[in-house]
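[Automated response] Your request has been received and processed.

Submitted sequence:
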Amino acid sequence: MGKVKVDDLVDLGLKPYEAKAVLGLMALPDRQGTSTEIAETGGLPRTSVYGTMDGLIKRGLAETVATVGLSKWTVGSWDVLLSRLDWEANQSLAAYRRRLRSVAQKVQAGAAR
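Generated structure:
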């Protein structure tokens, strides 16, 4: 198996900085780090880390680590991350199918007139 790249995670629905942050955290001990550590290992600007991590937290893909002083974040294992991305994809697909059925019903109702 090859190494996971930014484009692989972007293809699964992450934004480029989110993908870089995830890869940066996965490379750190215990998959947790500060904004500086995430920026250095992930290759994204340190000033973008806070906003990026907020986005990952809102999606359930990262968590804040309770520490004194420095802010730290963590991500789960690859299995946890990929499971969550799969769940998101299934939710999006279910919403799409509901919209599709709604439009189909409108088309059928219009055709009946």
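Summary generated for your ticket: The domain at 6-111 is CATH 1.10.10.10 (Arc Repressor Mutant, subunit A). The first strand starts at residue 32 and ends at 34.
If you did not submit this request, please reply to this message.
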